[in-house]
């Protein structure tokens, strides 16, 4: 029809973008087979039949700070403001499996998240909050204390295990994207997180025992295509492991997979990424593993605006970036969205920025009417073409990972980290050359910051409170019971048995996060993070 | 399959839960969509769109005094703004001089005061007007534009090379100025006089920008907005045709448009797409103009002030971001992002910067200009585009049936439409049918934060008055009087008044003096507002 | 003395796991000819031990979490305790401007917030090579 | 005092022409049973004269531009000159909280910013009406 020039315009993932897309570009698409209806395979247009006309996405902010008490106050405020799900960001020592009085962590306690070191802390965080009515996302470490503590709290409140709703995020992808101290090896990690999936398949059918999470990897500078490829390779890795073990029927195993992705700047690419992701998961489940139950192939995804796109300069500009990223998540059909605080490149979110994050989602939901119809972009020549293109390229990346032995092996050998590193260096180069535009940083940079914003400062006294508390808890608990529970856990870790029941028992006996984390490290040894220059 | 259970667009169009290939099967791509830069222009007026050139970032601004406004324009120019856009203050909008005792409290509010050519010269001091494109929100008759043109003459510039736009539109001025107005028929006459004059003397200047922004902000929906906008354009063309002084294609070639960008994201996108197709049909089918350049619906869009809330003002930054994106996805040529604080005060430096940043982020980081009409082909967007077009034609017809836009204004029908829309809007807000975050939903008892406030300079009016008095003293009284008498005579004779307006400005006539002549000939018109 | 004789230890003294900035800056230093020891996540005492063993000239710290005040001061104390009080200490990450003065008083020579061009960081160090202790 | 005997003059004392708010408030008051004189844009002396001629009980002012301090004070002065300083004066528009106290001190009985539900304004007027002596 017309000569499309492709002169050097590329998406953020390097996909050449034509100046115009026309019916010709999608003439090979078979609507029923490749797009279909929402709620029906291949789910390109959405995993549910009614999508946002039936139910809006969940407004869910990952949050937590200072102490369990302060976090509880924050959660109560968020609940009042209309938030419909909770999401625990643990502090660094919790994520690192270290007790607050561990000399290595003292300065980290209560920073960047909520410190939760015991069942008591978990109960404090959710004091007065109706966990039977909301679902909770736990950014737990593998073999960590958050999930067992949450389950025990629910049991104590009389909520049956099959009614507890929420998600444990402890997947390979995310965890290996950050350098945390005190971590087990990738294969230990895989084993223990599969244990939880198996356990939940039998005991907690409404819980998502894993959230395949490419958010943090994406923030290491990789592209949307790599993000998607890595995510799908992780799914395959988990299914392969379950298949190898053969303890739980695969359809039961994969039914409660949740997903967590980033929404980055390139608006249409992000929308298409989410559409392609749904189709890819279905193909893995249905075509590769022969699982026919369509419920197993539904990619239910939580998305979060990409922290790495936020600038320290002119922080209010981030509010605009986040607004666009949230919109991309909505047009891409996400089930749950976290809008970052605009100030997260400067400090932990203040009350003001927290409110604005929620407002951003509420404005999209209630004022822009984009939820009036399902998959409003479906059929667009550009969006359908780009969805196909991203899918194709992401399969190539999956193949690359499989060629190096799958996701766990790719992490173990440092292959993935070399990808990250190349991406980081490439990004810096593009930033310098102006191939990438960052307004206020490499474009239109001001000599002086034009405005100031309120700054959040964590309470330095939190650490003292928590150190005192854990000392008291250690004194008050039945230490013989703890020793026994930990010995049992060690035996189970050395065996092939599922580790989760033993972890639950240890948490009930008031074992500390440091004590829990020490056991797999003792059995399998620590992991050296495969990154360097 | 698709249910229509009570989900409507902001304009009341029923929205199905799903659009599929079935919904677009009657669309003939070549006939209904076509390529960008080609009829019917649904996908864009230019063949390369934002790949060739991004939309212009253009903020309507001005405040206090010409001198301070000048400082602001220079800043905006340096921040990367590629077009200037002049908001006149209230006294200028109503055509009164700064030293008129009726206006003293209004000088420098909501815009820059421009009583005389001296004010215009101060406003553009040091700005190379030959390199920028300037938008003047000038009322019908284009007196401020005459000052701008005479300034250009005095700088030795050729008017034939000057780029810019004069609003010169009767629809938008049906809203803000309630006092000191001539009747709609006089509006129309002055407006068309100016257009005719520009065709000959300032061929690169856009002599009219049909503007539905203010009307939309009265609570109209997208269908009414589009209908009124095009009915106004038709009214002007009819008038030009009736006179027959300038070939219609020459007049139409430089017409541009100005619309609001409201909250309903896809409806706004579809509105701009439908508008392009409708304008093409008007120009080609109705007036038989075949020159393709004449059929381009070139549009400047502005985020809708009426969607902004006084509560939690930073929420407006989010609303504006989405409205800007809708404008860009709809293929606008130029966009004004409001200041987030315009529900509270005139924009501060902070909010002005954020407005520009919003557009820059949409353009440079979100990559939405990477391909042309990215939504083209979407089952929903194409269906909605068709639906908006169809409903807007009906609305155009309604206006034509009552005698056209000027008549709709004179008879008061227009104001009843505004009133009904306003009352309906309030009803929906009160019942919660129309959710507004932070106002009727999730309202907080106490404002959660403060934003910086722009404070108007209470000394500004006095400075202006003194300056204008001194300016008036210096003039050659005889030449001035002769030029104004000539203007009156020409006005009464029915000739094109604009050469006489230009002459009067050359003789340093003021805005108030010229508007007094208009009122003397046509009489005062009181708006038939309804409650 | 030029860049190839200068040894830099790059480390994150906190537990928080964002290493993107550390890698980007480390690579830039290496590309500029410096000898870079990429320490990654290390506690303050480990940083000091390594700095002493490797006899580095510069320690570059990266902290993306709001605990940079205690972490920086602990690291500098440890460096002094290990006889490395004379190394040049750089700090990158999310640092509030209000704290710049105090950090400089503590002994931090350069502070780099997100969005600083890498070449500015490299230039900062290049300009100060003559001040490094081996020369003095 | 009976509602339909209460006369309210609604006016914009400046030249600025955002009459959306004034129109809807006028309609709401009329719908609530008041006699509303819709004055539109009027200069302060005109407001004073009309208030006296029509013997109104209340004056509602609407100002959407930042010059409200000056316009309010001029209008109140004109009302005094016309011996109408006993009327209840309401003010609507974009009014900064920091000026509320000063405006009330000047003699403004009620201030309504954008986003105020109409029924709140009507309720406020009802209360003021009830408080006024019957005549």
How many structural domains are formed by the residues of chain A?
1
Classify the secondary structure makeup of chain C into a structural class: alpha/beta
Shape-level CATH architecture of chain C: 3-Layer(aba) Sandwich
The helical percent of chain A reads 40-55%
- Quickly name the level 1 CATH class of chain C: Alpha Beta
Q: Give the helix/strand class of chain A.
A: alpha/beta
What is the arithmetic mean of pLDDT of chain C?
Answer: 91
**What is the distance, rounded to the nearest whole angstrom, between the alpha carbons of the first and last residues of chain C?**
11 Å
Poorly predicted runs of chain C are none
Oligomer: heterotetramer
SSE string of chain C, helices as H and strands as E: EHEHEHEHEH
CATH superfamily caption of chain C: Cobalamin-binding domain
Tertiary shape of chain A: globular
Say what the CATH topology of chain A is: TIM Barrel
* Count of domain modules of chain C: 1
Output the number of helix runs of chain C. 5
Task: Write a compact overview of the structure shown.
The complex is a heterotetramer of chains A (533), B (531), C (136) and D (135). Chain B has helices spanning 29-33, 49-52, 66-78, 90-93, 117-123, 143-154, 184-201, 213-216, 222-243, 248-252, 265-286, 315-329, 349-364, 379-401, 405-410, 413-431, 460-473, 477-493, 498-506, 511-522; strands at residues 56-57, 60-61, 83-86, 133-136, 164-166, 205-206, 208-211, 255-261, 299-303, 334-336.
Features:
heterotetramer; C: 136 residues; alpha/beta; Rossmann fold; 5-stranded parallel β-sheet; 5 helices; 40% helix; globular; D: 135 residues
Molecular structure report:
The complex is a heterotetramer of chains A (533), B (531), C (136) and D (135). With 533 residues, chain A is an alpha/beta fold. Chain A has helices at residues 31-35, 51-54, 68-80, 92-96, 119-125, 146-156, 172-177, 186-203, 215-219, 224-245, 250-254, 267-288, 317-331, 351-366, 381-403, 407-412, 415-433, 462-476, 479-494, 500-508, 513-524, and strands at 58-63, 85-88, 135-138, 166-168, 207-208, 210-213, 257-263, 301-305, 336-338. Chain A has 21 helices and nine strands. In chain A, helix 13 (317-331) runs parallel beside helix 14 and helix 19 (479-494) packs parallel to helix 21 (513-524). Chain A is globular, with a radius of gyration of 23 Å. Chain C has one domain (3-131): 3-Layer(aba) Sandwich (Rossmann fold), CATH 3.40.50. The radius of gyration of chain C is 13 Å and the shape is globular. The N and C termini of chain C lie close together (11 Å). The model of chain C has no long low-confidence stretch (mean pLDDT 91). Helix content of chain D is 42%, strand content 22%. In chain D, helix 1 (20-31) crosses helix 5 (118-131) and helix 2 (44-53) runs parallel beside helix 3 (68-81). Chain D is globular. The mean pLDDT of chain D is 89. Chains in contact: A-B, A-C, B-D. Chains A and B meet through helix 12, helix 13, helix 14 and helix 15 of A and helix 11, helix 12, helix 13 and helix 14 of B.
């Amino acid at each position: 029809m017309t000569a499309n020039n492709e002169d050097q315009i590329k998406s953020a993932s390097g996909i050449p973008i034509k100046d115009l897309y026309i019916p010709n570009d999608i003439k090979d698409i078979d609507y029923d087979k490749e797009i279909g209806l929402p709620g029906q395979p291949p789910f390109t247009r959405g995993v549910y039949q009614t999508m946002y006309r039936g139910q809006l996405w969940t407004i869910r902010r990952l949050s937590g700070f200072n102490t369990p008490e302060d976090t509880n106050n924050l959660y109560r405020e968020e609940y009042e403001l209309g938030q419909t799900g909770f999401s625990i960001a643990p502090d660094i020592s919790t994520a690192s499996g270290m007790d607050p009085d561990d000399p290595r962590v003292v300065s980290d306690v209560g920073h960047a998240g909520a410190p939760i070191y015991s069942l008591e802390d978990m109960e404090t965080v959710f004091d007065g909050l109706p966990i039977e009515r909301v679902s909770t996302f736990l950014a737990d470490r593998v073999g960590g204390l958050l999930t067992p503590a949450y389950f025990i709290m629910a049991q104590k409140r009389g909520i049956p295990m099959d009614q507890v709703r929420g998600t444990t995020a402890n997947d390979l992808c995310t965890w290996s994207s950050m350098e945390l101290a005190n971590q087990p090896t990738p294969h230990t990690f895989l084993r223990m997180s599969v244990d939880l999936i198996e356990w939940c398949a039998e005991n907690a059918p409404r819980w998502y025992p894993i959230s395949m999470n490419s958010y943090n990897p994406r923030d290491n500078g990789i592209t949307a295509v790599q993000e998607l490829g890595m995510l799908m390779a992780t799914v395959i890795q988990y299914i392969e492991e379950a298949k190898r073990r053969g303890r739980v029927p695969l359809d039961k195993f994969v039914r409660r997979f949740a997903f967590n992705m980033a929404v980055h700047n390139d608006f249409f690419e992000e929308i298409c990424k989410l559409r392609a992701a749904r189709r890819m998961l279905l193909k893995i489940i249905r075509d590769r593993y022969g699982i026919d139950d369509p419920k197993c192939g539904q990619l239910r995804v939580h998305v979060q605006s990409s922290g790495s796109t936020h600038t320290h300069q002119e922080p209010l500009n981030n509010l605009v970036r986040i607004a666009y990223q949230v919109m991309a998540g909505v047009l891409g059909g996400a089930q749950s969205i976290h809008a970052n605080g605009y100030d997260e490149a400067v400090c932990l979110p203040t009350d003001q920025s927290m409110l604005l994050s929620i407002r951003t989602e509420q404005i999209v939901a209630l004022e822009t009417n984009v939820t009036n119809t399902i998959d409003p972009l479906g059929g667009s020549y550009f969006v359908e073409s780009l969805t196909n293109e991203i899918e194709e390229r992401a399969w190539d990346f999956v193949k690359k990972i499989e060629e190096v032995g799958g996701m766990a092996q790719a992490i173990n050998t440092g292959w993935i980290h070399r990808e990250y590193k190349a991406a980081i260096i490439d990004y810096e180069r593009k930033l310098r050359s102006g191939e990438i535009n960052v307004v206020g940083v490499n474009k239109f940079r001001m000599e002086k910051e034009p405005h100031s914003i309120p700054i959040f400062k964590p309470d330095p006294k939190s650490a003292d409170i928590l150190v005192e508390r854990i000392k008291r808890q250690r004194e008050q608990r039945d230490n013989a019971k703890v020793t026994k529970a930990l010995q049992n856990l060690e035996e189970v870790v050395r065996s092939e048995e599922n580790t989760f029941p033993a972890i639950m028992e240890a948490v009930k006996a008031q074992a500390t996060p440091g004590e829990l984390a020490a056991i797999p490290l003792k059995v399998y040894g620590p992991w050296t993070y495969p990154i360097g220059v | 399959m698709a249910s229509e259970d009570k989900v409507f667009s902001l304009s009341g169009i029923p929205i199905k839960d799903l659009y599929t290939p079935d919904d677009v099967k009657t669309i003939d791509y070549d006939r209904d969509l076509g390529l960008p830069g080609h009829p019917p222009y649904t996908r864009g007026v230019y063949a390369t769109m934002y790949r060739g050139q991004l939309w212009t970032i253009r903020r309507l601004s001005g405040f206090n005094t010409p001198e301070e406004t000048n400082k602001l324009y220079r800043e905006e120019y340096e921040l990367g703004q590629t077009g200037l856009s002049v908001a006149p203050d209230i006294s200028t909008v109503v055509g009164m001089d700064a030293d008129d005792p009726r206006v003293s409290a209004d000088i420098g509010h909501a815009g820059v005061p421009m009583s005389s050519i001296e004010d215009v010269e101060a406003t553009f001091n040091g700005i190379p007007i030959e390199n920028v494109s300037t938008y003047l929100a000038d009322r019908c008759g284009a007196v401020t534009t005459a000052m701008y043109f005479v300034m250009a003459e005095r700088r030795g510039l050729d008017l034939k090379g000057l780029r810019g736009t004069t609003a010169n539109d009767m629809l938008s001025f049906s809203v803000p100025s309630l006092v000191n107005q001539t009747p709609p028929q006089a509006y129309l006459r002055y407006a068309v006089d100016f257009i005719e004059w520009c065709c000959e003397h300032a061929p690169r200047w856009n002599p009219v920008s049909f503007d539905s922004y203010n009307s939309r902000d009265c609570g109209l929906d997208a269908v009414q907005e589009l209908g009124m906008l095009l009915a106004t354009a038709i009214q002007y063309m009819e008038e030009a045709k009736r006179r027959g002084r300038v070939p219609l294609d020459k007049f139409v070639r430089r017409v541009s448009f100005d619309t609001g960008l409201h909250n309903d994201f896809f409806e706004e996108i579809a509105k701009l797409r439908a508008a392009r197709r409708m304008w093409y049909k008007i120009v080609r089918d109705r007036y038989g103009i075949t020159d393709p350049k004449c059929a381009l619906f070139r549009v400047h869009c502005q985020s809708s002030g009426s969607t902004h809330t006084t509560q939690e003002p930073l929420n407006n930054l989010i609303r504006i971001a989405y409205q800007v994106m809708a404008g860009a996805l709809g293929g606008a040529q130029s966009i004004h992002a409001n200041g987030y604080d315009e529900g509270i005060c005139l924009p501060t430096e902070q909010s002005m910067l954020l407005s520009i940043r919003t557009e820059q982020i949409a353009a440079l980081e979100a990559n939405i200009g990477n391909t042309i009409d990215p939504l083209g082909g979407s089952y929903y967007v194409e269906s909605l585009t068709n639906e908006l077009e169809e409903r807007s034609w009906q609305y155009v017809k309604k206006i034509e049936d009552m005698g056209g836009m000027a008549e709709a204004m004179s008879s008061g029908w227009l104001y009843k439409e505004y009133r009904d829309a306003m009352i309906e809007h309030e009803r929906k807000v009160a019942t919660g049918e129309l959710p507004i975050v932070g106002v009727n939903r999730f309202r907080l008892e106490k404002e959660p934060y403060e934003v910086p406030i722009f404070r108007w300079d209470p000394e500004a009016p006095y400075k202006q008055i003194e300056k204008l008095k001194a300016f008036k003293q210096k003039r050659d009284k005889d030449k001035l009087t002769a030029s104004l008498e000539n203007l009156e005579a020409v006005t009464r004779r029915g000739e094109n008044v604009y050469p006489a307006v230009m002459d009067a400005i050359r003789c340093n006539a003021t805005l108030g003096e010229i508007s007094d002549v208009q009122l003397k000939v046509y009489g005062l018109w009181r708006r038939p507002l309804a409650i | 003395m030029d860049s190839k004789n200068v040894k830099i230890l790059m480390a994150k003294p906190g537990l928080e796991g964002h290493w993107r900035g550390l890698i980007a800056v480390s690579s830039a230093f290496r590309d500029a000819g410096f000898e870079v020891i990429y320490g990654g996540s290390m506690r303050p005492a480990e940083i000091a031990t390594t700095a002493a063993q490797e006899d580095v000239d510069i320690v570059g710290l990266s902290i993306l979490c709001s605990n940079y005040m205690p972490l920086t001061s602990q690291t500098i104390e440890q460096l002094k305790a290990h006889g490395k009080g004379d190394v040049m200490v750089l700090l990158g990450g999310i640092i509030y401007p209000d704290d710049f003065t105090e950090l400089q008083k503590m002994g931090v020579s350069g502070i780099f917030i997100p969005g600083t061009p890498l070449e500015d960081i490299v230039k900062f160090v290049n300009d100060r090579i003559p001040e490094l202790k081996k020369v003095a | 005092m009976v509602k339909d005997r209460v006369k309210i003059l609604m006016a914009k004392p400046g030249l600025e022409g955002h009459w959306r708010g004034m129109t809807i408030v006028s309609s709401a008051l009329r719908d609530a049973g008041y006699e509303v004189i819709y004055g539109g844009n009027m200069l302060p002396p005109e407001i004073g004269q009309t208030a006296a001629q029509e013997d109104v009980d209340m004056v509602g002012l609407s100002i959407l531009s930042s010059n409200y301090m000056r316009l309010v004070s001029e209008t109140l002065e004109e009302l005094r000159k016309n011996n109408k300083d006993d009327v209840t004066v309401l003010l609507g528009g974009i009014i900064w909280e920091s000026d509320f106290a000063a405006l009330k001190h000047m003699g403004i009985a009620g201030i309504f910013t954008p986003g105020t539900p109409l029924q709140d304004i009507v309720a406020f007027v009802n209360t003021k009406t009830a408080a006024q002596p019957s005549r």
